[in-house]
Amino acid sequence: MKAIIIGAGVSGLTTAAGLLGTGHEVEVFERGPELRAGGNGVLLWPNGTSILRDLGIGVDDLGVRMDSADIMSYDEKPLMRVDLADIAGKLGSHVAGVMRGEIVRRLAAALPDGVLRTGMRCVAIETARTSADAPVTAVFEDGTRVAGDVLIGADGYRSVVRGHLFGPDDIAEYTGLATWHGTTQKQIGGLDQHFVPAYYGRKVAFTTHSVTEDLKHWAFEVHWPIPGLDATGVVGDQTTTGPRSGPSRMDLLREWFAGWPPAVADLIDVLTEEDIKVHPHVIHKVRKWWGEGPITLVGDAAHAVPPRVGWGVNQALEDGWVLSRALEGAADPTPRLRLYEQTRRARARRVRSRGAMLKHVNRMILLLRAKKGGIEATRAVQGNIMNCSNYLHGEVPAPLRA
Fold it and tell me: What value does the CA radius of gyration of the chain take, rounded to a whole number of Å?
């Protein structure tokens, strides 16, 4: 079987590695002129580090191990405590803070030469409906046409493949929130390297964690109703990075986070306007089916969620793993694509529900200030990881042999 994968992010490359490992032919097409190895810091949960390890990707030196996480109020009162080391021991793998781009680089390095092609923008998809096993063809901007047995849309929340399947109006919804994020080599508030703090205000939030021994990711979550911002969080083809007029982002950070703990104040003191990248939050409805015929979706193309959920990259890894297992040994891939979608749908909907809820959760979390010392939330977080993971439940479609 030959698979065409549109998009070389985490979901596309995970799917490629999994399919190659089960003996399929794979071609991956990335619209950018080079591999998308930038991006922000992310947390890999135990299912994520386990999936990468099972694919042969080294994770022991990937990013920084995270052992604990605390949620605190803007005035540094404890709200929740999470023992990530305990969760790692129970689920069989560690939690890691890592740059998204490093995951992409390692997955791409595991692919044989010639599998990945950059500078290839998909502009159309053609399917022949004359028979169930008719090929599907990807048409690219330069006129190249590539046919395969299946086509997998891994091209993000503005997916060309999703648009082909469900029409141009089936887009991710902008939530009115944005993350202002970046990385720094400066020490932030004397924080331990293996600790993830999150601070909540009534309308805004802040978190930070290590991604290498000397590099920290940081993120401010803010309400950001940008005039002219369309439902997908973009104006034209460029991500909006700030207001067209009015206060600078630095002025707004100083206003919104005045008097917050040292971890926040120390960072704002050393930031400049140019350090801040802006990521508008979008969220998809999780459809009953993610594809049709020989086509399906993975990652943000199927179920984009805001970064506060902490599950974007982990969902991408779950999709790639389940899909590659579903197609193992398949003589007719089409029903196996629907089985993959069915297997993943309920878990993806749980993540989506969390994403929708967390938009309104700040005031609820701050009620915990009344409870001295906060609450122990380790079991709740472990339960959430389990509830959102097919991998940890062994919910992988059994292989079919031709």
Answer: 21
CB atoms within 10 A of CB 253: 23
Under DSSP, the state recorded for 182 is E
Q: Encoding tokens for residue 307?
A: 């970064």
CA 289 to each of CA 165, 207, 216, 361: distance values in angstroms, whole numbers, following the listed order: 10, 35, 38, 29
Q: How far apart are CA 284 and CA 302, in angstroms?
A: 8
Least confident of 132-146, 163-177, 230-244: 230-244
177-197 CB burial, b ≥16 within 10 A, e <16: bbbbbbbbeeebeebeebbbb
Please tell me the number of Cα atoms within 13 Å of 252 on its side-chain side.
16
- DSSP element (H, E) containing 344: helix 333-358
Neighbours of 115 (CB within 10 A): 18
Amino acid at 296: T
Q: Are 221 and 206 in contact (CB under 8 A)?
A: yes
Pair type for strands 68-73 and 195-200: parallel
Tell me the pLDDT tens digit for each residue of 76-104. 999 999 999 999 999 999 999 999 999 99
For residues 207-212, give the mean pLDDT. 96
Task: Compute the distance between CA of residue 135 and CA of residue 4 in angstroms, rounded to an integer.
Answer: 11
Per the document, the length of the chain is 402
